Each structure stands twice: as structure tokens, then as C-alpha cells.
Amino acid sequence: MQNTQILVLCIFGHVIKLFDRSDSAFWNARCQAELADQLAKTPIVSQAKNVIVFLGDGTGIATFTAARLLKGQRSGKYELEQSAWERFPFSSIIKTYNTNMQVTDSAASSTAYLNGVKGNQATIGVDANVLLGDCLAMNIEQFHTESVLKNFQDAGRSTGIVTTTRVTHASPAGNYAHIAERHWENDNDIEDYNGDPDACDDIAEQLVLGNTGSKIKVIMGGGRKKFLPEDAVDPEGETSGRRKDGQNLIDTWINQKNLLGTNSYVWNRSELLAVDTANTDYLLGLFDYSHMEYRVDNDASNPTLSEMTRAAIEVLQRDVNGFFLFVEGQFFQIEEFFCCLRLSCTLLTQFTVLLFVHRISCSTLLLLHTFRLFRGLIDTAHHLNEHRSAVEEAFEFEKAVEVAVSMTDVQDTLIIVTADHSQPMTINGYPSRGSDILGLASVSDVDNMPFTTLMYTNGPGFRDQKNDLRPNPVDENYEDPHYVAQATVPMVESNHNGEDVILYARGPHAHLFTGIHENAYIPHAIRCVHPPRDQVRTSPTRSGAYILHAIRCVHPKRDQVRTSSTRSGAYIRHAIRYAACVGSGLSFCSADA
């Protein structure tokens, strides 16, 4: 069986060589076209009317690359394919550490890239003076940070958040919440995490009743359980809400908005598609009890990320002053949970078979089954080492970006695509050109067994190597959407990665996003793009980098504007040649050289 697969890989690699024009003429023409495109780029220096931030949670460069390769093998362009954001003219590298951790979580990261200040791990919307779980410090307004979303509200513009997680989860909460513990999503959670619900407002309360949250015009995602009381039954089943305080925050939101304008609350796809967005001032969509489902598992009852994005823009575009929209494609974040494991005889039988085939630890498999038993808890891809599900999610994320691009004008709308942190997935093994990115890379020269191109440095995909042999991925059905890829270090869930992430930008002042920056720099640049009246200033307390960008924002010098994006090595040679050729008159500088 192994020999057959190797032969297939070799034959497939040979086919790729037949249609891949890799001669000098091909690459010279391609890279000259890239160079011409780069030279034609000029920054848009007008102020932005609208800003849209797309956040791929856990989408490190390896995931972006894998998604592009998967798109390429489906389009027939293979490695020459481009993702939608790779056509954006400017890009930057973003540092992700926070004030007390080299490797950040999504909570502290959201404080940085949405508020412009780094905070402590697992806190949201507060600075480093607030330690994890410190309710007293959390209530001190001096320690609160201010989000770009709030800046737009203060400037009289509409705002919205769209996510495939719970709308009270770490990333979207960075837009409106000030909390000392990311898990305090409702009052019940505060008790579970050793807090005092009478002294600390939970995240759902802050979204519906808070100064910033209550002004958000579009809110879409999952997480009904955080808004419903324990005596309220969820519309999709017998599950009840999780609030102990008796508040039905969905009803509260509806009653509030009835006083302010036309509004719609929807909880499934058909209701969302029926909304008259041209005559809707406020829109709340909670489409799942907890997180929304994977793209590969989603049924017709849930809207896609692109459908939610379209509806959000349609509502927000009614504001002639402009809008700010945050869109999160949540591929990778694990669901935190506290529940009992009640395994039926059938499940125990399945568990025994899986334990035999995969050689995954007993405790790990129990947890994996628990994640999948509960509706809304499927959104665990990278943390569960499910690389296939994770990469597939990027397709819907890209569709949402394409929707935003098609519905807005590059001259007045800044669109940013970035990530909050990376994940420990690697692309390895010297696979041939055109190989399935979700398939096998090659064969180990130690155990003579194949391995997948995408693997993890740690996580539940670790296999016990009995008799010094690892399991053969062919025997494990590696083509299953929820296949758990092999990992080197055993963990119940994988950790985040601490390397820098990438940011892509198009629109007004997108040229501010070049070079290497702190994640906390992002809001400062956005504020410069369309500054609230008192936000753009230079003072001795500002860093030199901030002052430089503020000056460029007011009057950018053409020779100071750098453009960067994803480039091949061959392109770099052409760019260097061009730099040497300008004004030189050298013979090798002709267009045909």
C-alpha cells in the first residue's frame, strides 16, 4: 500500500512538470509583470470614510499559505494561485506578545489590535494595571482602554461586529468590553471563575447595557446561552440559558432598540436573509447556542460568514457619515467547557476502536468526543489538530473579504486582514508541486511510512509509539474532515504560537501598514486614517514610530512610502535589478532583458 502511494505521488509530480512552465521566459515575464504592478501602486492619502477589520483567529502564515494552496489545487492554478488579500497593495508583519506572556491569547491580543494598548493575558479592554480576575481594578475607569469602534461611535459613525464565535468571546469583546477575566461572559461564568457577579458586569451585560456595546448597530454571531436566563429554553432545542440573574438580554436589546429605530432580532439563516436591510437601523443575530459551526459541518439553518458580512455592510452603509465593522473568522479557538462525561455504550465502543487504531491517550479521546457531543463546540480545529477543518474555514473567510471588497470603494474604505496569533501547524516534507496540501508529503527515511504535509508541534494528535512505530496515517483515514493530525508533544489541546503574524491592507492610508509593527500599533494607524477630533497628536509621551506615522498621515512623502506584499524569490531579483537600472542607461536594463 505504501509503495503504491509513493508511485502515485511520483506520477502526480511528473504531471505537474508537464503543465508548469518553469523556463526562464515564463518567470521573467511573470516577475516583470509583478514589478510593473508594484511600480504602479500609489498610496491613497485621503481620509477614510469606512474601516473594516477582518480578523482570522489563529491564522498564522502557515495557515494562510495552506489555504492558498488548497484554493490553487481546486482552481487548477496550484502554487500560482492568489488569495483575495494577497492582491491588497500593502502588507506588514505584526508582533503579538503581550505584557506578561511571550505567546498571547486572543483576549490580550484583542486589547492590543483594537485598543492600541497591550494588556495582561486573558484580560480584555484594560491595561496592565488590571491583573487576571481582579474585579476591583477592572472597575477603575482609569485602567480602561478605548477601542477604535468606540472612537467611531464618538465621531458619530455606525459600528458593527460579525463573528462565527460567541459574540461575547475574546476577540469581538475587545471592541466593547472591559473585563479582568475573558471567561466572564455571563454572571454564571463569573461564579465559575471565582468572581463576584454583583461586583463585576459580565461581557454579555456590557454588550447590551454598556456605554459602547449598547450603541453597536450590528451584532452577529453565536452565543445565545450567555443572554438567556436559566428558565428560558433555547429555540433550537431543549437546552436552557445560562444566566442565573434572570435577565433575558435578548428581550432587553429588543426593548431598547424599539425606542431608537427599526430593528430586527434573528436566530437562523432564513430570518437573516428576510431582513429588509435597507430599512433596518439595528440588527442582532445570534445563530447558535454557543459558537457557530465549521463550514464543513454547517447546515442550511446557519448563515455563512459572507452572508453575515453582506447584511452587516448593507445596514451600516445607510450611515452617510461612515462606519467601522469588525469581522472575525474563527477557525481555531477551542471551546472552554465544564461538563460531565456521560458516554453511552455506543460511544464507549467507538472510543475503544479509536483508541486501538489511533493510539491516542484515553483522556485525550474522552475530551475530543466531549467537544463534538455538544452543539456549538465544533469550532476547535487547530487546537484539536484538525488541520483539514481549519484550512477549509479559510475559504469562507476569503469569501467574506471578497464581499467587502465588492461592496465598498477602495478610495474611501480601508480594509485590513490580519490575525491575532498563530497556531503550531507546520508545512513540511518536500511534497511535489501540485500535491494535495491536505494529503501526504512523502515517506520517512526512518520508519518508511508516509506522513502528512500539515502537522503540529503539540496537541491531542500525539500518538503513543508502541514498538517504536508511529501509526500510518493511511490506516487512520487522513482524508476525514475531522482527522486529528499527528503532533510531536502530547497535550489535551494545542497551544498558540508566538511568531509574528501578517497584515494586509487596501484603501486610504493603507501604506501606514508596511514594515514590522507592534499589534498595538494597528489602532493608532486606523485613528490616523480617520482620526476622532482629539486623537491625532504628537507629544513627548508618544513613541518615535507613532510620531513618524502621524506626520506621514498628514503629509506623506512619496519617497517614504514603502509597499510590500507576498513576493516570490524571483521577483526580488527583478526589483533589485530595477533599482540599479533607474537612470543608468545600462544595456541590460531594457524591457526585454
**Can you count the helices?**
18
In CATH, what is the homologous superfamily of the domain at 50-339 and 386-425 and 497-529?
Alkaline Phosphatase, subunit A
Structural class, by secondary structure, is alpha/beta
CATH architecture of the domain at 50-339 and 386-425 and 497-529: 3-Layer(aba) Sandwich
Say what the CATH topology of the domain at 50-339 and 386-425 and 497-529 is. Alkaline Phosphatase, subunit A
Helix content: 25-40%
The general outline is globular
Largest sheet: 10 strands, mixed
Mean pLDDT: 82
Active site: 106 (phosphoserine intermediate)
Family: Belongs to the alkaline phosphatase family.
Binding site for Mg(2+): 57, 169, 171, 328
InterPro entries: Alkaline_phosphatase (IPR001952), Alkaline_phosphatase_core_sf (IPR017850)
Written description of the protein model:
- By secondary structure, the protein is of the alpha/beta class.
- Among the domains are: 50-339 and 386-425 and 497-529, Alkaline Phosphatase, subunit A, CATH 3.40.720.10; 569-593, no CATH class.
- It is 33% helix and 14% strand.
- It contains 18 helices and 15 strands.
- Strands 5-6-4-3-7-1-8-14-2-15 form a ten-stranded mixed sheet, with helices on both faces. A three-stranded mixed sheet has the order 9-12-13. Strands 10-11 form a two-stranded antiparallel sheet.
- Helix 11 links the parallel strand 5 (263-266) and strand 6 (282-286).
- The active site is at 106 (phosphoserine intermediate).
- This is alkaline phosphatase.
